[in-house]
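Researcher: Please predict.
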Amino acid sequence: QWGEKKGGPMGFHPMAWYHDFDGGRAFYTGLGHMPECYSDPVFRNFLYGGIYWAATGKGMNKKM
């Protein structure tokens, strides 16, 4: 429906987060929609770090 917005603001929505959950770990990112993101080594390092933490519970010691 077009016109005046109804309701209030939707609040804070982080683009990435991680946490321990129910005996496991969860990592989420809303980044990476464009294929160009994956050619950026900084983005790939960020993504790998999140996946690595979720899989092992450990942080990365160096850049990949």
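Model: The radius of gyration is 16 Å.
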